[in-house]
Amino acid sequence: MDTGSPQLTRPPEAAEDWTVPQDWDHFSREEHAVWDLLFERQSKQLPGRAADEFVEGLNVLHLSQPGIPNFEELSEKLTKATGWSVVAVPGLVPDDVFFDHLANRRFPAGNFIRRRDQLDYLQEPDVFHDVFGHVPLLANPVFADYMEAYGKGGLRSLEFGSIKKLARLYWYTVEFGLIRQAGNDLRIYGAGIVSSHGESVFSLDSPSPNRLGFDLERVMRTEYRIDDYQQTYFVIDSFEKLLQETQEADFAPLYERLQAQSDLPITTVLESDEVITRGTQDYVRAA
Ligand code: PHE
Ligand code: FE
After folding, report:
1. Mean of the pLDDT values across residues 92-112?
2. Beta strands in 64-202, from DSSP E residues, in sequence order
3. Ligand 1 binding site (Cβ under 6 Å of any ligand atom)
4. What is the band of 34 on the pLDDT scale with cuts at 50, 70, 90?
5. What is the spatial distance between Cα 206 and Cα 186, in angstroms, rounded to a whole number?
6. Which of 22, 33, 42, 110 minimizes the number of CB atoms within 10 Å of its CB?
7. Residues tagged in the binding site annotation for Fe cation
């Protein structure tokens, strides 16, 4: 989603829906090696940290060849699991295009990979973030339904001029969500966290950030930062509950109500919040 960024222009090689052929053969040996390195490192770090559903979904990324996944082969496996496929796009795409892909169970993934000197940090989503971060959960039937519902809700939010509010829901679930699993154990599932070597530890172990119980309306009021580790994470109880709560609700009256309410700064903790951890915010002060 590109919410907030300036008008994007479609490159001449891209189709109307902004897709491009992945052209798997264009990736160099070095680019495949960077994928393998990132993949190795993160798959080792995630058991016990990532939601069980995510770790199970990693299977879908084990293809016949190492290196950056071939989207044709990957999509075939993913379609069998949940009806989703992965399509290549040059980079960020306009919101309506993005939503339309999701609404039709297509996940748009960037057709480039970070360089070896950028392993730990990159602001633009590359194929490692998009595929390693997002695709495993798309193999989970419940999360797969959530993402489709989100796409449809996104198209709908455009009619209400409420895309900014809805984008926050995406940010605090799909990108940076935490989940409570067996034994009250906190786990990560957001793609921005699972694809980050640093944040997959920070988000769970650091005393710095707030960890608050998920509340739909509250989340849609909360600002976020895109340039560093999050200062607040929201914790869901299950993917089933998240899907139910968002799919069944009519967001139209919610958008209307939100229009009258102020946005909440990132670190605000409300009386009404379920506080799992009150962060020290030391990480930010030290930066
Ligand atoms: N129920 C939401 C609406 O009425 C759609 C939606 C579903 C949005 C799931 C986000 C996630 O717009
Ligand atoms: Fe992402």
Report:
1. 96
2. 85-89, 106-110, 178-181, 185-188
3. 149-150, 153, 156, 169, 246-247, 249-251
4. very high
5. 13
6. 33
7. 129, 134, 175
> H/E element holding 276?
strand 275-277
Query: CA nearest 191: which of 71, 33, 54?
Result: 54
Residue 208, pLDDT > 80, answer yes
* 69, 61 contact by CB (below 8 A): yes
199 CB-near residues (< 8 Å, 6+ apart): 192, 193, 229, 230
> By the 8 A CB rule, do 71 and 5 touch?
no
* Nearest bound ligand to the CA of residue 167: 1
Assigned CATH for 24-286: 1.10.800.10
Whole-complex ipTM? 0.95
| pLDDT exceeds 80 at position 2 | no
* Burial zone of 135 (CB within 10 Å; 0-12 exposed, 13-18 middle, 19+ buried): buried
User: Could you give the 3-state DSSP secondary structure of residue 193?
Assistant: helix
Residue 174, token pair as written in the block: 């799909």
Across the chain, mean pLDDT equals 95
